[in-house]
Structure prediction request, 157 residues.
Amino acid sequence: MSKEMQELQKQWRFMMKSIHSNSNVVAFMNSRIGQYLDDHPFVALSLLVFIAVSAIPVAFFLMFVVTTAVMACIGVIIMEGVVISAGGIALLCVLGGLGLLSLAVSGVMSICYVALTTLINYWYTPKSQAMDQEANGNGFSLNSSPISDPSVNNKSK
Prediction:
């Protein structure tokens, strides 16, 4: 494995160790919700993406509510109920769409994660492990091709 990859792995392990040793993280992971999310990583990723993409629309809605409340203090009481109701319905539509979007994004991210880890494990398989698997007959050879070359058979004749 290259030195850059080893250094990256070392930094990643240090960062993960510092996160997992945080007392707030430990307390959350020991809760029922933390254990559920630990057992269901797709749900955790979907929830994380949903929270990230829904922060901006919720902030806009809260600014909208504050603005209409200020207008209500000035004297537009009936208009406030209509406008906040319309804004609430619009927010529900946006959050529903963002929920679907977060499921799609987390699905794509999960597929990319599985594909990339599989490729990295394939590319960085130690040669000694690959040769052990080839010697035991339960693996594939890194040097052999599954398609036989007809020219090799013709040269031996």
In short: Confidence is low (pLDDT under 50) at residues 141-149. DSSP finds seven helices and no strands in the chain. Residues 135 and 141 are 9 Å apart (CA to CA).
